[in-house]
Design goal:
The structure is a homodimer of 361-residue chains.
Chain A: H1 23-30, H2 34-42, H3 49-61, H4 68-75, E1 80-85, H5 91-106, E2 110-115, H6 120-132, E3 137-140, H7 147-151, E4 157-160, E5 171-175, H8 177-190, E6 197-200, H9 206-221, E7 231-233, H10 238-252, E8 257-261, H11 264-276, E9 285-291, E10 304-307, H12 310-325, E11 333-336, E12 339-341, E13 346-347, H13 349-352, E14 359-360
The first copy, chain A, binds a DNA duplex (30 and 30 nucleotides) through helix 2 and helix 4.
DNA sequence: CCTGATTTTGGGAACGTTCCCATGACTGTG
DNA sequence: CACAGTCATGGGAACGTTCCCAAAATCAGG
């Protein structure tokens, strides 16, 4: 009977096609143990300098690259973060994503991006995916009525957007809506638009409530009954802004009209509607937007708007998140100021009443 | 001397805050082995139905969620894909990302998004990050002069954009530039614009070369010397389109002008320049864009353009990539057709020569 | 040259899963 | 009733790291 020596059996054969070098291969070449290689490549202090160089050279010679999965599994840190926004194709969130991604890359981390499409179920499923991927934390712009899933998320979160208010215990980064709205209304005021019509967001959303609360307070402070304001609701889309504007024009009749839209897409929709109605902006209709998306420069006239610091929001959110993950800061609420961008969609009623019509910011 | 019993030592204490239940916890509750739990939860066939239900119930009862890192490490598949584009904040790539992300989510995969910012070094570093994250594959819109890193990438790739030509051995998804350019030129032709000026991309880029090659051939076929065409280069940005348009207007003098821009941002820049020069679009200047970004509806007049199927590109690229990873298809080059969008930035010279000026697509 | 402290290294366990193989229970057939 | 054949289950190795602890090597001081 012929017996093959059991001791000589090849115990482990690498799967074909997956033969990336490991720390052990490096150790073999450098003539040290895997522990030493790990120390050398992780920048630990307790290692001889010559040994380190020898290991680094060996690693380079075979093109070794650390397996992030294994590292994450063992260390409990994945170096990945999640970003969940309603729609990455929306210029505002694309800009936020860009800010977050740049900051993450700067910290050698990666960003998992998801679009929830305003769908709570989809958002919940994305959050689950993030948890399973063992990301170290997530930046979330939650869909309004999806508070439960977020509360149960169970890992570091930084919130973006209005629903930060609903989670006082979570960190958040947002723009200063109150300051922005007031700045916009002050600006309108200074141009002689004392009672602008408002194109607001959908009634259910918290963003809408916050926006309208400031408007309300502002007019109370300026001795105007907020109830006399013309408010039309929209869905934050171009189409709905267009529709809202048509309704406003119908109600307002033929006088000069000024509208303040709760986001730029609706403002630009309002401008389209103005054109469709055969009216001119800013001569007949003044329009002020809110967001500061790049597309605002393309309209004629360019859209004057209250700009949110989108990229800054992404940037700070990422920073805050990584601080939180690293245990540097546990909880913080950051509010970034909005900025006025004047491009020409607002008529100056003060000057025009002196006989000359001027378009200004 | 007091000795603590060595055998009674707690060998392993879970790190605080990281006490997520594992497959073993589930096994303990369900009263089966971890292998059985794995089988039950992975949908394997060889398991008793009652046992499966028992396990699933146990898993739910403690809120077990599979650790994706461990799964990936062991199985060699991470269920993650990479996407590297020049700039996620650019509406075209944001749309591509949206398409890819939706398709990935549909397949229960995640997408790691990176912006290279046209920087080859940054692109290389992102590719390295993807390799270390052990993604299953990547969709890349490469920076033109970064061919080496891509060739050495060493995992399934699907290319987006013009550089697909440089890698005939790699799969790719792109729009049919030739068809699109011809469609645009035909359209201009039908409106009486026989010799449009061209605002092209930067000379170095392959996208530029491809665009101009089609233009060149087209005019040769139509008995026009391509050398007589006015071509101004831009950088695919609004500003550079604006600058190029100013140069064109200076050279063209006072006649009617028609320009075909190689992307929408430059076309919109050209429209801004037209306005700055005191000219009207489309009465004095006709403008045709290329891309189909949403912002094209906001200009006055709306931008007529040859639209690339951005979301479709992301969608198909992701599909192709996952096919490739799963070994279904090894290599394919998909070309999607462009579509003409007519909005009003082009004058109809044929009708206008009959006495009436009409804006048309 | 010895001793104790310090630095440097190696070995093995652990992270949480999947995969392979062995075992046991059960079924049907001769 | 013995046997091969299926089916369900359990045990252990493996994935490639990091972390802990012990061993080895080096160093300083007497």
């Amino acid at each position: 009977m012929v017996t093959f020596p059991q001791g000589g059996v090849v115990r482990y054969m690498k799967k074909a096609g997956n033969n990336r070098p490991t720390i052990i291969d490096v150790a073999g070449i450098a003539g040290v143990s895997k522990s030493t290689v790990a120390r050398a490549l992780s920048g630990a202090s307790n290692i001889n300098n010559e040994t380190r160089e020898k290991v680094v050279k060996a690693a380079q010679s075979i093109g070794y690259e650390r397996n992030h999965l294994a590292q994450s599994l063992r260390s409990g840190r994945s170096g990945m973060y999640g970003l969940v926004v309603p729609d990455i194709a929306n210029p505002f969130w694309a800009e936020v994503a860009r800010g977050a991604q740049d900051k993450a890359a700067q910290k050698d981390a990666s960003l998992l991006v998801f679009s929830s499409d305003w769908n709570p179920a989809r958002e919940a499923s994305h959050l689950r995916a993030l948890r399973q991927a063992r990301v170290d934390g997530a930046i979330v712009n939650p869909v309004e009525d999806n508070t439960d899933d977020l509360a149960r998320f169970g890992m570091p979160v930084v919130l973006i957007g209005s629903s930060a208010e609903r989670f006082p215990e979570l960190s958040s980064v947002g723009s200063d809506i109150a300051q922005g709205v007031r700045m916009g209304l002050n600006h309108l005021n200074s141009l002689g638009h004392m009672q602008p019509a408002i194109i607001s967001g959908p009634a259910g959303r918290l963003a809408h409530v916050r926006f309208m609360r400031v408007v309300h307070d502002y007019f109370l402070e300026h001795n105007t009954d907020p109830a006399t304001l013309l408010v039309e609701g929209g869905e934050y889309t171009v189409q709905s802004g267009q529709d809202a504007m048509h309704r406003i024009l119908k109600k307002k009749g033929d006088g000069k009209v000024c509208v303040f839209a709760a986001n730029d897409l609706m403002a630009l929709g309002a401008m389209l509607a103005t054109r469709e109605a055969g009216l001119k902006c800013p001569q007949d209709v003044s329009i002020l937007g809110f967001d500061g998306i790049p597309a605002g420069v393309f309209s004629d006239p360019g859209l004057s708007t209250v700009a949110k610091p989108a990229r800054g929001i992404g940037d700070r959110a990422m920073e805050l998140l990584s601080d939180q993950v690293d245990g540097r800061v546990s909880h913080e609420k950051i509010i970034l100021p909005c900025e006025m961008i004047t491009r020409g969609s607002l008529a100056d009623m003060v000057k025009s009443s002196n006989g000359q019509l001027m378009a200004t910011g």
